[in-house]
Chloride channel protein (Sesamum latifolium), 735 residues
Amino acid sequence: MEDVYKLVEAESANMEGPEEEEEEDDPECNNLHHPLLKRNRTLSSSPLAIVGAKVSYIESLDYEINENDLFKQDWRSRSRVQVLQYIFLKWLLAFLVGLLTGGIATLINLAVENITGYKLLAVVRYIEQERYLMGFLYMAGANFLLTLVAAVLVVCFAPTAAGPGIPEIKAYLNGVDTPNMFGATTLFVKIIGSIGAVSAGLDLGKEGPLVHIGSCIASLLGQGGPDNYRIRWRWLRYFNNDRDRRDLITCGSSSGVCAAFRAPVGGVLFALEEVATWWRSALLWRTFFSTAVVVVVLRAVMEYCKSGNCGLFGKGGLIMFDVSGVSVRYHVVDIIPVAVIGVLGGLLGSLYNYVLHQVLKVYNVINKKGKLHKLLLSLSVSIFTSVCLYGLPFLAKCRPCDSSLADSSCPTTGREGNFKQFNCPNGYYNDLATLLLTTNDDAVRNIFSINTSSEFNVFSLVVFFALYCILGLITFGIAVPSGLFLPIILMGSAYGRLLGLAMGPYTNIDQGLYAVLGAASLMAGLPFLDAHPEPWMRNITVGELADVKPAVVTLNGIEKVRNIVEVLKNTTHNGFPVVDCGVTPPTGSPNGATELHGLILRAHLILALKKKWFQQERRRTEEWEVREKFTSIDLAERGATIEEVTVTKDEMEMYVDLHPLTNTTPYTVVESMSVAKAMVLFRQVGLRHMLILPKYQAAGVSPVVGILTRQDLIAHNILSAFPHLERSKGHKKGH
């Protein structure tokens, strides 16, 4: 949903030499006897991901099951009880994810409602005493301090806690590693920062951060705690792999949405439609179980707080769309204004996204200047917000209370209510103050309220809509945890209610329902990740991509230690094909053949060096030797580097049998496959590596043409290697 905050950039190497003049051909019409495209001979790119305020090189995750000898032996040796225990632990972790997410969401809501409530009560007292300047100074000062706390935590301790975190979660579940996104420090800063930013009255919501918080909880549970204080229980180490961690984070993201809106089915659908790119039925039930636990926790807390044991919590920020007991009546003619709302929502949403992109470009320039500039930007937005929220209600005219209402409901002088008195005399209320001098959650309740057709006038709704458009544009992108859900809801509800006022007697739909429809329509202008390849990708084969990449680095099944060390030190590749030469195939070729045994990961090579898996002669090891040295749990460990390995001079001349550690069933494609087809497979299966095999196997030729990774399938990188395609696209558009 909120991909507009994070940008992914790719830096391509400068291409040397003069560019040849080529005939502008239609890429759809290529001669089958000639290469599809003219191309540069190098595909060199350094994709960078902007995560929070840090720039990191993109790394992929190993979602693929590594079917090496140890993995197969482990599954063969597992008893039925161990398999059931593994399944039970998956459900137990899903339960804990829901329980902790619901508990932390409750804590955030309690803190926000109480901090904001006591702040607004103090401001109201100053207004009742007509000490308007003191009221403003108190409100602006409190908001300034709350924003300062949130911004300092983000800037100094966890830059990845800025923003909603949803784009990074989508990237992670799609197979892209997002560094430092799910750590304990990020979780702590996200919680405290969300409380501070929302309590400061900034135009942002806690809904996006709650999704990130749920994902952090799931990640920490799966790995046994923070990096420096992990629990090393044997049963927990079974989940120390990217595949199971992905499932847990999917449960965490859906639990976060459920905690924000108290909608268990909505949380599951959000994970299914917006976040996860790989899904199965077992995961569907576990995510629903997690969201159900969240709902139970929230309901229990709300029942407890009804007795007044939670301070100013009241209803809290947990029910935003409670339509129980409401009957909706409409006629066929009402379809027309509903359709108009949809069209306006799409147009306004697209315009909002465009302007927001331009604002974020400016913020990116400011944020690059250092931590002080990030803090000053956040605090400037806080001061401007306080001035608007406090000052604009003075522009609205006081409206008389409806005589049919009880004296206790109009006007109100507390922090809640649909008819706030503000600076008005008794018997009158200020409708703009009702929307601005309150929490964002209460503002949603007020503007969604039914049977209040005359509560808000046009001027107040226009001011409210314009203000939240401006505040939404300048707030999203500062160095605090923030989300776009609530600002979009507030903007959409304002113009939806305006349309309801315009329709007046011509419709049977309540204005509160118009506000709900407006909020829903504006949220659908927001983009989602397109899973389909570009049409021109079908004109390029994976073999041609392999031609413009550096030569693939292969290892022998029994390799010398020196060669392994040199490969690890001189390359950054994560996987290496393992080949065996002189193998006699089943057909009985007398000259022998070169066999592709599989793919070995960088982490497993480092593990073999650290455990001194060396031997004096070139030979295949026995199964019992492997079991004595390694376990399948050892292969799940990540994070080791070649710099941590110490190898003596004598050990450099020894050998390592790589066969037991090699994935013998990697995903492979033929070199004639189109890039479009390979990209679909790569995304849907969640791969990190895809081996390219030759269509014809000649004697003495390597059985591997190349390896495809995520970076190779980025459209920008492909076009940088095939400039002819870019010009052909432009030529075709010109005609």
Summary: The chain is about 50% helix and 10% strand. Residues 59 and 467 are 41 Å apart (CA to CA). Residues 80-128 form the longest helix (49 residues). Residues 1-56, 316-321, 526-530, 730-735 have pLDDT under 50 and may be disordered.
